[in-house]
Specification:
single chain, alpha+beta, Nucleoside Triphosphate Pyrophosphohydrolase, 250 residues, two-stranded antiparallel sheet
């Protein structure tokens, strides 16, 4: 089995772009903030050179990484631990997540990525189900109102990255991928969180303004997609004593 991390050389990372507003907010803190659990879902459609990835541009009103293009995602909320869902994660993804968190928390991390994808891009990854009550949470109620439950099937974990301590906001972010096949890309829309939402090829993404973490994970994704099958470990980036480390987890 090929390893998409080891077999293709080192992951190359660029300089992290920090705005003056972000820099001043970090200077106002007496210590590095604790990373908050977050989740990101990379959706792909097509294959080969025609493979397209769902991304959107963060608005300039954000005080963390404004204006850059990102994958849909965000913080894991309390509601994610209790929402009803359809589908099952692969044994591999469950094993990797549960090396760090409880089974319920692990499910919540993946559910958060599905919820955030709906909130930020208008794309609902759901499966038909009896329209029973889910939660009094706007996004999960939106699934219920369409007679669906958020669907976890086909979602695989491929990376993890912890925001370094020199940022004023930090996240322990898990990266997931789901391949939607050869069909035309599903309909999407802008939101209050992401603008200019669209499906982009790897070549098109190179012309977009992105952040270091996104560039890094795009490289990891390319290697993941080339592998014969999902590797037993995932790429893991974190800063240790001020130095970035490219690790494997678990």
């Amino acid at each position: 089995m090929s390893d998409p991390i080891k077999d293709s050389g080192p992951i190359l990372v660029g300089k992290m772009k920090i705005t003056e507003n972000e820099r001043s907010k970090r200077k106002a803190l007496t210590r590095a903030p604790k990373p908050r659990l977050a989740s990101t879902l990379v959706l792909t459609c097509g294959s080969g050179e025609n493979l397209k990835i769902l991304m959107g541009q963060r608005s300039n009103r954000h005080d963390f990484m404004p204006n850059v293009y990102v994958f849909p995602g965000g913080r894991v909320d309390r509601a994610d631990s209790y929402a009803k869902y359809a589908g099952r994660l692969s044994a591999r993804t469950e094993r990797i997540l549960e090396a760090a968190y409880t089974p319920r928390r692990s499910q919540a991390i993946v559910l958060a990525s599905v919820r955030e994808t709906w909130e930020e891009t208008g794309l609902m990854l759901g499966k038909r189900s009896d329209a029973h009550r889910n939660l009094t949470h706007a996004s999960y109620d939106a699934f219920r109102e369409t007679g669906q439950l958020p669907d976890l099937s086909g979602i695989e974990v491929f990376g993890r990255a912890v925001t370094p301590p020199h940022r004023h906001k930090r996240f322990d972010a898990w990266f997931f991928v789901k391949q939607l096949g050869e069909s035309p890309p599903p309909k999407i829309s802008d939101s209050s969180e992401l603008l200019n939402v669209g499906w982009f090829t790897f070549d098109e993404i190179e012309s977009l303004e992105t952040q270091r973490a996104t560039d890094m994970m795009l490289q990891v994704l390319k290697r993941y997609l080339k592998a014969d099958r999902p590797p037993e470990t995932i790429f893991y980036s974190r800063a240790i004593r001020g130095e970035f480390k490219m690790l494997q987890f678990p």
